[in-house]
């Protein structure tokens, strides 16, 4: 649900207030970027797609109607469509193993910890990429962004019970894939 | 194992966009104009209309193409099975039947007229023309069995010696009128 402050920001943005939309951008751009990045696994492409997600949202704010869903659900929906378009138009895909490890920020204190973290992240990302799109969305939203099943249900336009079932299947499949990976 | 996975997944939250990109993207976004709502609605209306129009045209082309192929190349499209030619043929047969019926009707009417006239004549001069009457009495059977083309009025003309009698002359005149 939208809090009152966010509601008033959204109303101002609908009215064409660019600064108000800037506040929405500040609040949501990191999570949308992460969502896109985990799906395309390429920093520049993720930046480009994320920019277009917000550009699309801003240009279409005039027709936005508050239906009680969080504003992020609109952004996630645009992001999902943009990622699908990205894969539809892009003929060649990047191998996740070829990714520059420097793209993932290092927050660990020691070099060993940092390397271990990098390894874990790369492994999980590789496994996530092998899941089907729906499972990818649910894993990222539920376990990375820590959205509630009801929020995910609104974004994916599915019943909450279905989301819980899909979440269970997705994590089970991810576990199986991680066991298979060397 | 599951906890490790969940911990690793949560750690992915550390992924953040480059700050330089963020500033640049934000600046570009806020500098770009917002599309007015009315313009968007008009654009959506035209887009939907175009999609609908294209769909209708597609259906028309598809149906037209299917009909054309069906009529032209279908193995079932034999000349004898063509509905139009069958209808034309049936119309032709119908009209020829009508013509025959009209002819029959005409001949029947003329026969009836002849018989009526003969009956009238018999009523006018039953005594004056005994020979003619005798021939005329046997005439209806002959008229009914012969076709109009073969039954000549000469058959009924009175050629007896008493043909000079006015009554007999009158019969001859009537029969000639009928023949005409």
Query: Could you name the CATH homologous superfamily of the largest domain in chain A?
Result: RNA polymerase sigma factor, region 2, helix turn helix motif
Helices and strands of chain A, in order, run as: HHHHHHHH
Domain module count of chain B: 2
- Structure annotation, total helices of chain A: 8
Can you give the helix content of chain B as a percent range? over 70%
Strand elements of chain A, count? 0
Largest beta sheet of chain B, briefly?
Answer: none
Family (chain A): Belongs to the sigma-70 factor family. ECF subfamily.
Protein name (chain A): AdsA-like protein sigma factor
Pfam families (chain A): Sigma70_r2, Sigma70_r4
InterPro entries (chain A): RNA_pol_sigma-70-like (IPR039425), RNA_pol_sigma-70_dom (IPR014284), RNA_pol_sigma70_r2 (IPR007627), RNA_pol_sigma70_r4 (IPR007630), RNA_pol_sigma_r2 (IPR013325), RNA_pol_sigma_r3/r4-like (IPR013324), WH-like_DNA-bd_sf (IPR036388)
Written description of the protein model:
The complex is a heterodimer of chains A (182) and B (180). Chain A is built from 8 helices and no strands. With 182 residues, chain A is mainly α. Chain A has 2 domains: 1-95, Rna Polymerase Sigma Factor, Chain: A (Orthogonal Bundle), CATH 1.10.1740; 109-182, Winged helix-like DNA-binding domain superfamily/Winged helix DNA-binding domain (Arc Repressor Mutant, subunit A, Orthogonal Bundle). In chain A, helix 2 (18-40) packs across helix 4 (71-89). Chain A starts with a helix and ends with a helix. Chain B has 180 residues and is mainly α. Chain B folds into 2 domains: 36-77; 94-179, no CATH class. Chain B is 73% helix and 0% strand. The model of chain B has no long low-confidence stretch (mean pLDDT 76). The A-B interface holds A 16, 18-19, 21-22, 25-26, 29-30, 33-34, 37-38, 43, 46-47, 50-51, 54-55, 58-63, 104-105, 107, 117, 120-121, 123-125, 139-140, 143-146, 171, 174-175, 178 and B 1-2, 5-6, 8-18, 21-22, 25-26, 28-30, 32, 34-37, 40-41.
